[in-house]
Amino acid sequence: MTFDAENPVIQLCAAGMQKEGEGKPLEAKQLFYEAWEKAASPFEQFTAAHYVARRQSTVEEKLTWDEKCLAIALTIEEESMKANYPSLYLNVAKGFEDTGNLEDARKNYTLALSYTTYLPDDGYGNMIKAGINKGLQRVK
Q: Are 93 and 105 in contact (CB under 8 A)?
């Protein structure tokens, strides 16, 4: 999966990230929701849902969007999508942990761990692996 810089949904998400960087979270949230409304393909929906999740005001709302993002990602039948699964399951697991549902948190941290072979061997991959391992330790 590659991001097409000319894609309007990707452009809206990038503009939202820019607003986040400028300290304008409400404007970012608006742009992410606009991206969600325009998203037509599963890849666009997955991308927009990921960014919408970032701007939720409660743990429960974030978890709902993280679960939606993961569910969409799982419908995209491209091998390269599997590199996203560890992070997506990590986000869902953390949401369950934060809501006190340690059983579902443990299940999702374990699923995240099962896909770590698809992560790149770099700083990003190491960060996701560390987050998964720390999460598993917290919900033993």
A: yes
